[in-house]
Amino acid sequence: MGENQMITSTQVTDATVRALYRAETSLPPWVLERIKEGLERETNPLARSQLQFMLDNVSLAGSRGLPICQDTGLAIFHVQMGQDLILDFDLQEAIAQGVRRATSQIPLRPNAVDPLTRENSKDNTGPGMPDIILDRTCGQSLSITAFPKGAGSENMSLVMMLNPADDPMEFIVDAVRERAANACPPLFLGIGIGGSFDLAARLAKHALLNMHRIQPYSQESSQRADRSITLTTSPEEIKKLEESLMKRLNNLGIGPMGLGGDTTVLGLRIEKALCHTASLPVAINFQCWANRSATEVIL
Questions:
Q1: Closest CA to 185 of 25, 35, 22, 26
Q2: 213 part of a folded domain
Q3: Which residues contact 211 (CB under 8 A, 6 or more apart)?
Q4: What is the pLDDT at residue 236?
């Protein structure tokens, strides 16, 4: 273990603002590449026009420094913190300060409301927000990934406790058939199979957050380290499931914006964990075509 390192709350707040700005006004290169690949393969003229509109929209947002979508989402962050780091401040509050600044500076739409009174917090922070997924890692760096999540796709997400005899792949296909058109397709899907009710949802979110690490598959990405949260399933088995499922979902013909076409899903990732002998939890985290994220690393 190396010497303990220290960072300041100001560094975290500033990094949060930068990550949110980049996430809201641009798309990761691998997401843009997926949309372009979809456009090249698409045979439906209307679907092709929708995909081109998406690319034009991203270009315009980037050139003007404006959010890609009017729904700037909830403030969700994936934070990877090195075990050699020492924090003498409240990490949640430092990131929340960044969210408040970004809300006024970018600007972001105030989306966070009380679930019962519907009162708006006006700055996207409050109880439970920002939502921070924290992982401890080796080393001495702090990585902050902004992952804004809009309501259109999030409202289509679900967790279902299936019977052990049920086929989870059939459930997933049926869910996408019924819900995809309302989630601003083409989609990215994070899928969690197994665990408990809450673990299945966490697996699905984890799959969505880390989808870029297996796009495309490579010898390096087949190592277990990239799927360390999963149990019992080899990467090769998962790869075959994912490829088969992608083909089935794109054959549904839902297409971009639900208007028909060959391009319904641009990417998916499955994470799997052991579950109770009498249970089969399955979670699907829908993500629209604007799969926004950006990472800032401190130290």
A1: 35
A2: yes
A3: 188, 190, 267, 268, 269, 291
A4: 84
Q: Locate all alpha helices (DSSP H) within the chain, ordered by sequence.
A: 9-25, 29-41, 45-64, 91-105, 151-154, 168-179, 197-209, 235-250
Residue 156 lies in a domain: yes
Report pLDDT for 215.
Answer: 41
Q: What is the pTM of this model?
A: 0.90
In angstroms, the CA 189 to CA 248 distance is: 14
Residue 268's nearest CA partner among 243, 251, 289, 248 is 243
DSSP 232-269: S--HHHHHHHHHHHHHHHHTT---GGGS-SS-SEEEEE
206 SS3 class: helix
Q: Does 196 map to a domain?
A: yes
CA 196 to chain centre: 21
Tell me what pLDDT residue 249 has.
98
Task: Give me the phi and psi of 42, to 5 degrees please.
Answer: -65, 135
Reading the block at residue 223, the tokens are: 């190592």
Given a contact cutoff of 8 angstroms between Cβ atoms, the answer to whether 256 and 289 are in contact is yes
**pLDDT tens string 3-45:** 666 899 999 999 999 999 999 999 999 999 999 999 999 999 9
**193: domain range?**
151-218+231-290
